Amino acid sequence: MAVQLPIHQEAPALVREMRRDSSAEGPTASDEKLLRVGDLAKAAGKTVRALHLYEELGLLVPTDRSKGGYRLYAADSVTRVHFISKLQDMGFSLTHIGEIVRAWEASASAPSAMARMRDLYNQKLEETRAQRERLIALERELVASVAYLDTCDACDPKRLIQSCSSCDMHSCSTHVPGLVAGLHQQSTPQTNR
Hints:
By secondary structure, the protein is mainly alpha-helical. About 55% of the residues lie in helices and about 5% in strands. It contains eight helices and three strands, in the order H-E-H-H-E-E-H-H-H-H-H. The chain has a three-stranded antiparallel sheet. Helix 2 packs across helix 4.
């Protein structure tokens, strides 16, 4: 038995906004609550092409087809597309997302499925926090570099390139940020042969 993902609370409102007739002949009672692929794409902020790819990979399954042959999706498909997008934002490829979904659906019990997802999310949480720390450090380095370079506007451009590491605008005690210091070519000592 496949475990269903919870329906996002905002999905019904989006579905109501995006609902159109599901076929040229007019909607039937069963079609009325379903979305055509274009409507789902608009509600989920994706392209129709992306949704077709998700379908090809087994990540998204249409509920039915209209009399006109259009794919029809249940309202909770918006939530499923958002789920796929969030996993992509976390760095998962569509292939890996497919593996995650298949493992979820093949789980023998809900507790084992939940434990697997909790482990996966905890790992991604640790990676995200580490990435955030790297980005904060990079931000500090960029701020320091911009501040350092802002004082160089009055210097001769040729002098900036050749000998910027110690000039009258920056005291010798001023820390040269790595993003500036790395611009200067290291001189290699000449050896007598």
